[in-house]
Every structure is written in C-alpha cells, then in structure tokens.
Design goal:
This is Anaphase-promoting complex subunit 5. InterPro entries: TPR-like_helical_dom_sf. It is a single chain. Helix content is 77%, strand content 0%. By secondary structure, the protein is an all-alpha fold. It has two domains: 77 residues; 64 residues.
C-alpha cells in the first residue's frame, strides 16, 4: 500500500514535513564540507521553524533554532548563530526552568566568547550555572561539558 505525504491528514503532514526539514538541517551540521547542502540550510530552517510555530511546538522550534545556530557557527557566521540562539531563548522566556533553557545560555556563552565579547559570555555562563542549580541532577557527560565551558570562559576573563 503506497502512501504519500499528500494523502495524510493536514496536521500529520505538517508534523512530518517539519521533521523532514529539521532532519535535513541536522544533515547540514554533520556534513559541513558539502557546500551544496550547506547553502540550503537556511531554507531548511525556515521551513521547519515555520511549521513548528504553526503547530505550537515551542520546544521543537527552539531545538531547531539551536541546530540552525550550530550550522551557522560552523560556517563562520557567529553573529547569525548568536541571533538564532537568542530567538530560541526568547521563546523560552516564559517557560519553566529546563535543560533546554540552560543549553540556550550555554550556547550563547560560546557564541559570544568566540566573538571576543568576554563580559557577555561570562554573564551567560552565570545564567546557565544558576539554572543548573535549579534542575534535578543531569548526566555526568552533560555536566562535564558545561563545566568545561564555564572553566574556559572564566579563564578567558582573567588578565
């Protein structure tokens, strides 16, 4: 039995389309040397994010923003990467404390430190450290990465 996207219920089709575009964006991240694919990362993000917002999937939208920011960061577009990360953070402004919120601040810390904005980076580190204190215990591998980032940024702050 053959089934295509156009045969699905519109809501289900929208969800699947969003997932497909989001997956394509992930492929852009994992294959940075494929220039043709990298050039299409922006439309993939636009398509996925528009669908997530239409569906009201805020967390998926935020994760998509972070994925797009990672692709842009790898491409050397640091300020654009920061912008997309900030978009995710803005959407989570009224959300309860979560690891996703901590990751947004962590990624902002990274985006700002590579732009030599140490003070901004330190502020973002303080934000995600404060959030981590409010969260139940996270896995050790997670905490190690966040601790490493904190150490590096605080080291960069020293004269």
């Amino acid at each position: 039995m053959s089934l295509s996207l156009r045969d699905l219920h519109p809501g289900h089709r929208t969800v699947l389309e969003a997932y497909l575009f989001d997956t394509a964006l992930s492929v852009c991240y994992y294959m940075p040397t494929d220039v043709t694919l990298s050039d299409r990362s922006e439309p993939f993000f636009q398509q996925a994010s528009e669908r997530y917002l239409r569906l009201g999937h805020i967390n998926r939208y935020c994760k998509c923003c972070l994925r797009a920011a990672a692709v842009l960061h790898n491409q050397g577009n640091k300020s654009e990467a920061e912008y997309y990360t900030q978009q995710a953070l803005n959407k989570l402004s009224d959300a309860p404390t979560s690891s996703l919120l901590a990751v947004c601040y962590h990624n902002l810390a990274v985006h700002t430190i590579v732009q030599s904005r140490v003070a901004d980076s330190v502020a973002h580190v303080r934000s995600y450290v404060a959030l981590l204190r409010q969260l139940p215990k996270l896995g050790n591998s997670w905490m190690q990465l966040l601790d490493n980032t904190q150490w590096l940024i605080l080291k960069a702050q020293e004269p």
